[in-house]
Amino acid sequence: MSLHTQYLESFLRSQFYMLRMDGPLPLPHRHYIAIMKLVKTGENNWSLPELVHAVVLLAHYHALASFVFGSGINPERDPEISNGFRLISVNNFCVCDLANDNNIENASLTGGNFGIVDSLSELEALMERMKRLQEEREDEEASQEEMTTRFEKEKKESLFVVSGDTLHSFPHSDFEDDMIITSDVSRYIEDPGFGYEDFARRGEEHLPTFRAQDYTWENHGFSLVNRLYSDIGHLLDEKFRMVYNLTYNTMATHEDVDTTMLRRALFNYVHCMFGIRYDDYDYGEVNQLLERSLKVYIKTVTCYPERTTKRMYDSYWRQFKHSEKVHVNLLLMEARMQAELLYALRAITRHLT
């Protein structure tokens, strides 16, 4: 995160406030929830402020897991090493290099199996698609009916984007040979099988949709969380806005590039996977801008972070700098957190009314 200092300051402020400053939950409870990321074993009776505090902590650490695994911070198992673990290296740089950004910004992010020419052509093709979409947007906007159809199509397709050790069900997956070995944490949890499930089953005709206009963070979630857990709303809002608007106007070796369209596609695709729709957004842009390997990476990091592999990280946007991919992970993390908060806070709002 130190590659993006503005965001890091905002992140640390909000995390410190959740864990250390005045709040509804006692300090030991906060840390327990943060470690276990579940409230099952807590007290039976929660006040609304305590519940909101717990929800914020859960959403924060669920999303943080995506960033940790997605950025290659977590060690992978290696049977040839005495302690069973090795540090993940991304493009031949170790974690210590990545953390300190040592000599990696100008290094080619092409793995041994990928050619520089191919990755350069991918970059140029992406920029060309961005330019074309911008021109089409200026010439003629899609109708509401068309945008609804495109969202439903993207939402259904997201159910078939599989990840981690389930990749075998995706025909001819580039990641079928990856071996996913996760740490044994079953001793610490009551239900080892508990985890992410798609918001709808494949084959269902009418998939549920959360219309963002009916319950937005800005107009609903922010005020509720701030009322029940003083000031955290301002800190979270600052963090969401910071990552959404963060830009250096660069794409790999190109400068003076408006990346707004790309950042919005990343953020909205995460929400789309959770069934959240923005009426004013054309989801056709997601399909144009996010290649299949990137969608697999996003689904894995967001929903099954422990299955993320180095090969997935290397597979998309191969000419982009490591700091730019960290920026992607920051966007995914905050979109994931906001999606979880929207569902939880909407449920609390309904309980109150």
UniProtKB/TrEMBL annotation:
GO terms for biological process: cellular response to L-leucine; cellular response to leucine starvation; negative regulation of TORC1 signaling; positive regulation of macroautophagy; regulation of response to reactive oxygen species. Residues 116-150 form a coiled coil. One of its GO terms (molecular function) is oxidoreductase activity, acting on peroxide as acceptor. The keyword Coiled coil applies. It comes from the Eukaryota. GO terms for cellular component: cytoplasm; nucleus. InterPro entries: AhpD-like, Sestrin. The keyword Cytoplasm applies. It is found in: Cytoplasm. It catalyses: a hydroperoxide + L-cysteinyl-[protein] = S-hydroxy-L-cysteinyl-[protein] + an alcohol. Keywords: Coiled coil, Cytoplasm. Its main location: cytoplasm. Belongs to the sestrin family. This is Sestrin 3.
